[in-house]
Amino acid sequence: MESNNTFEQLKKVLVKFEKHLSVLHNKPDNYYLNTPDKVNKKKPEFFGAVQIKKTYVSFHLMPVYYYPELLDAISDELKSKMQGKSCFNFKEIDKSQLSELKSLTKSAFEKYQEMGRV
Q1: Where are the domains of the chain?
Q2: Which CATH class is domain 3-114?
Q3: Full-prediction pTM beyond 0.70?
Q4: Nearest CA to 98 among 1, 10, 39, 4?
Q5: Number of Cβ atoms within 10 Å of the Cβ of 45
Q6: Over the chain (118 residues), what is each successive 10-residue block's mean pLDDT?
């Protein structure tokens, strides 16, 4: 398993939103983003994370939990990587899955913006 390479590829998907979100963890095996402090006088919320686990790399995207319609257009191939309602697990990620995940993450961020969460 190429967990470090997979982790770095998935981390890049989230890093694009770093300037609009708050970095809670930025470690070699755990990258974690929250919404900014005090948006609408609320506590920060979990947005997304990438974590190296024992046999796979997890990509968490919380907006799809709150807004499951964001998943309506994803491929069966990407859907097969889902574990639970907002987590995708990868041993390796191919270009099409990565591209689709980038698009989903962008849509998820835009949905959070639309709903006033960021």
Answers
A1: 3-114
A2: alpha beta
A3: yes
A4: 10
A5: 16
A6: 86 96 96 82 88 96 97 96 96 96 97 90
